[in-house]
Amino acid sequence: MSVLLPSGPAPRIAVREGFPGSDSLSKFDAILVLLPTTAKPDRRLPARAQWQSLAARDKNEHATVRATEFEAPRRALGVLGWCREESEPFEVLRVAGAVAQKLLLERPRVSRIAIVVQSAPRRRQAWQEALCAALLTH
Q1: How far apart are the first and last CA of the chain?
Q2: Does the pLDDT of residue 111 top 90, yes or no?
Q3: N or C: the chain end with fewer CB closer than 10 Å?
């Protein structure tokens, strides 16, 4: 067995269209949102006022990452990151790594993570894959 592979079971990944519902704060340990530097968090996110407040704290520049804790039974952590829409794949992976690092520094033992990507449809899958890869390598 390779020493680079985790010893536990492989993670289960479920892909769903749309945004997590309002009840998702009780289902997930964390919700990660990656969006272009020109965008604001979508109004369809659960606890939208808290996401909007997090985004309004300061200027949203490339590779900026912020976190907030939601008042819910699981006390889910929300992590918001911004990336330039035209970023090369390696740069997207670097930003995704910063988002994953922020999550895992604050919550080292998370198991249920929602990933939300608000990019152009042609880039959405690559950004989702970057976040998954970043989480698996941390």
Answers
A1: 19
A2: no
A3: N
Buried b (16+ CB within 10 A) or exposed e, 75-103: ebbbbbbbbeeebeeeebbbbbbbbbebb
Task: Give how far the C-alpha of residue 98 lies from the chain's centroid of Cα atoms, to the nearest Å.
Answer: 10
Instruction: Note the pTM of the prediction, 2 decimals.
Output: 0.88
φ, ψ (nearest 5 deg) of residue 14: -115, 125
Of 38, 36, 42, 53, which Cα lies nearest the Cα of 19?
Answer: 42
> How many CB atoms are located within 10 Å of the residue 108 CB?
8
Closest CA to 36 of 84, 86, 71: 84
Type of residue at 14: A
The residue type found at 62 is: H
- The tens digit of pLDDT for each residue in 3-57 reads 555 566 666 667 677 777 777 778 888 999 999 999 999 998 988 999 999 999 9
Q: Of residues 10 and 80, which shows the higher confidence score?
A: 80
